[in-house]
Structures are given as C-alpha cells and as structure tokens.
Amino acid sequence: MSESTPSAHRCAWCGTDPLYVAYHDTEWGVPERDPRALWEKLVLDGFQAGLAWITILRKRDSLRAAFDGFDPVRVAAYDDADRARLMADPGIIRSRAKIDSAIKGARLFLEMQDRGEDFADWLWGFVDGAPIQATPRTLAEVPTQTPQSVAMAKALKARGFTFCGPVIVYAFMQATGMVNDHVETCFRHGPVRAMGGA
C-alpha cells in the first residue's frame, strides 16, 4: 500500500493535515544516521517544547533559512546581532531561550566533533546502534518516554544541551528511527521495520 493510497491506514496522530500526513508517510521513523541532520532534528524538537509539532512543520523552512540550513559551524558563530535578527523574525519561534539553546547546541556539537566523537554514533549508542522495533497496536500503547530516552536526556544535559527532557528526547528518537513506533496496522510499520534491518 503506497503513501498515495487514500485508504492507507496511518497512525492516528497525524490526522488529515496534508503537511502532517506527508511527514508521517515519508519522514517519521526513518532511521537517520547523519550527524548534522540529527542535530537539526534535536534543535527542532527543542523548539517544539510547549507547542504542537505541526507548528514546527509549518515553520520548518523558515527556521532552516533563519539558521543557515542548521549548519553547526555557522550557527556556533552567531553573536548578539544574530540573536536580535532571529528575535525579529516572524517566521520562526521567537523564544530567546530556545534560540540560545540552538546556538549553544551547535557549539557543543562542534566540541564533540573536535574530540573525535561522532554525534550520530553517540546518540545511536543509546539503542545499541539499531532501531528498537516496537509493536504498538494502538496509539495508547505508545509511551511518552522510555529508559533509553531518560538515559539519553540525562547524557545530553550532562554535555550542556538544553530543551532535551526525556519526553522531547523520546519524540526525537521516534522521529529519527531509533525506535519504530508506527502502530502495527499502519502501512509504514513494515517498511520502516525493514529500514532498520529487522
């Protein structure tokens, strides 16, 4: 069953918004191994704090433009003028704390890189390098956090990252394919499982 099939059974959380449906059908749960892409997603999940994910999806292109494509080298060099520019940008989430978190996160990402630590390998280490293949039958069976997300959140905070509590981190893990939480009846469950090598 393809993503274009009108009768495709999907996880209920994406509703009927075309942007949300496309995100569910093409991105959510796909294993992401690129360090920069993982950092971007972690930043976006941090921006989501207190908001609905659809709000971030609607602003994602604007956020990418405002943050120079989430290039850690460029974001790490941001100064007060850049902060002022971002705070004045109506296309993004104008939260000083979240903007500062993104800038700090870029610097931490580069520090890890300078020490020879691969951000992707480090994060995937919390799931032993392979996606956790969950088998939820309903949305109610999908947790909001797990021991792995608690451990990852604690480790991220210890490194200095912010806006990365265990619930935010679990959403990040779901989105980046560290766990396959598509419900069993969802047409994406099987293909996403196959991507993880299961």
Structure commentary:
Helices cover 53% and strands 2% of the residues. The chain is mainly α. Helix 2 packs across helix 3 (53-66), helix 2 crosses helix 9 (166-175) and helix 8 (147-159) packs across helix 9. The protein is globular. The protein starts with 17 loop residues before the first helix and ends with a helix. Residues 1-7 have low confidence and may be disordered.
The outline comes out as globular
N-to-C span: 19 Å
- Please state the average pLDDT score: 94
From the alpha carbons, calculate the radius of gyration and give it in angstroms.
17 Å
Counting DSSP H or I runs of 4 or more residues, the number of helices is: 10
Q: Can I get a quick summary?
A:
With 198 residues, the protein is mainly α.
Features:
198 residues; disordered N terminus; two-stranded parallel sheet; mainly alpha
How is the secondary structure organized here?
Elements: H1 18-26, H2 35-48, H3 53-66, H4 72-76, H5 80-87, H6 96-114, H7 119-124, E1 132-133, H8 147-159, H9 166-175, E2 179-180, H10 189-195
Parallel strand pairs: 1-2
